[in-house]
Specification:
14 strands, 6-stranded antiparallel beta sheet, single chain, disordered N terminus, 2 helices, mainly beta, 32% strand
């Protein structure tokens, strides 16, 4: 079920730059290696999750990862954002996490990011040549913590056996070795498939991807009616209807931009 919708540009940035908010209420990628989100793609190791209004970093909701069970030590949660984008076109990705009642502040390392990248010349859909591990060093059960991945910074990296080069610790340096290197997917994880994560729960929200001066904010929200579109309040400004924004509303829904603008102007 596709649950991704675009909202209007809302921030003033340098010429040519833009910030767009994308409301996510479920899987938005049609399949693996198709652009968009997939949640718990591997159902054999997945732990239950839901979109909830209980907590939010932005908007009204977030993704809640329910307590990880103790019967299957492989249980965990993975939210994958497939981007298939040149490393040179990506500057950073950040996300917010909040540790639930089943954990403590010391469980920050369980809310980590894996970045799967391929050298130039390797198909962008290849599993990976280089895997970068971004592990938080602080966390909280009271406040949201932001984790940031920067392509110009250094991280622990694993070089896959089939990789044509040894992976540099700085992702941006992949292009210096083999131009045209790409990032395939960002994978946000909760749990490490060991006994240390049993009972752990928590929330994820506010994923921010920046590249080429443009920023995309992914806002996790609830889709209570199951129509694949996050529940939203009616538009109050015609700008909210533009750039595909008309398709984000379901209270009421609109057939096109003109109908959305008419609603703003007339209330009908």
């Amino acid at each position: 079920m596709l649950g991704c919708t675009l909202l209007a540009v809302v921030m003033a940035l340098p010429a040519g730059a833009a910030t767009t908010t994308v409301v996510v209420a479920g899987d938005t990628a049609a399949a693996e290696n198709e652009p968009g989100w997939m949640f718990n793609r591997d159902t054999t190791t997945s732990t239950p999750y839901e979109f909830t209004n209980a907590k939010a970093s932005i908007g009204a909701g977030s993704v809640y990862i329910e307590p990880i069970g103790g019967t299957n030590r492989l249980d965990k949660f993975i939210a994958e954002l497939f981007v298939l984008t040149p490393v040179a076109e990506i500057e950073s990705l950040s996300y917010d996490f909040l540790i639930g009642a089943g954990g403590t502040a010391a469980d920050e390392n369980e809310f980590y990011l894996n970045v799967y990248a391929n050298f130039g010349g390797t198909p962008e859909t290849n599993f990976y040549d280089c895997r970068y591990d971004v592990v938080p060093t602080t966390g909280s059960t009271l406040d949201w913590t932001t984790v940031t991945f920067d392509t110009s910074a250094s991280y622990p990296v694993h070089t896959r056996g089939t990789s044509p080069e040894t992976c540099p610790t700085t992702p941006a340096a992949m292009d210096s070795l083999l131009p045209g290197s790409t990032i395939r997917v960002f994978a946000i994880n909760v749990g490490d498939t060991s006994t240390s994560d049993v009972g752990l729960d928590g929330y994820l929200d506010n994923v921010v991807l920046t590249g080429g001066g443009d920023t995309t904010v992914y806002d996790f929200e609830v889709d209570e009616d199951g129509n694949g579109v996050a529940d939203t309040a009616p538009p109050t400004n015609k700008d909210e209807c533009k750039k595909g924004g008309w398709a984000t509303f379901d209270n009421p829904s609109f057939r096109n931009q003109g109908q959305c603008i008419q609603y703003v102007n007339t209330g009908q």
